[in-house]
Amino acid sequence: MPNPQAKLNNILCSRLKQNNRKAGADRCQPQLTLPMTIAAFKTPVLRDLGHSNPYMHSGQFNELDDAVRFYITSSALAKNKILRNADPTLQHINLAEDDIDALVSFVEALNEDDD
Asked: What CA–CA distance (Å, rounded) separates 74 from 79?
């Protein structure tokens, strides 16, 4: 998404104007919008992803490396304009088969073991 900060700023300024119709609220300033961002966005965490199989929305992969391999393949298809209705972000994945073991090891290192 180009210029996400500008888009985020527009969203927050709009909310500020809707929630605060007092004089001066029309001036959108970072000191007014920054507090609005606290806990406003939830991003998925990687912790325990190695324990959350099966993977994908349909549960089609039991192993994390198979899910990563799927994204590598899908990315290549999207870059070559072969994958119909591909999400544009797939074209930005730059992983190779040689990267899979290291990526899976990293993700599995974030697992919390109760031992």
From this structure: 9
pLDDT of 2 reads 52
Give how far Cα 89 sits from Cα of 26, 40, 51, Å.
35, 23, 26
Q: Could you state, in order of their start, the residue ranges of all structural domains in the chain? A: 4-37, 49-109
List CB contacts of 1: < 8 A, sequence separation 6 or more: 7
Give Dmax (Cα) for the chain.
59
Residue 40 has pLDDT above 80, yes or no: no
d(CA 88, CA 78): 8
- Each residue of 81-110: pLDDT tens digit? 999 999 999 999 999 999 999 999 999 999
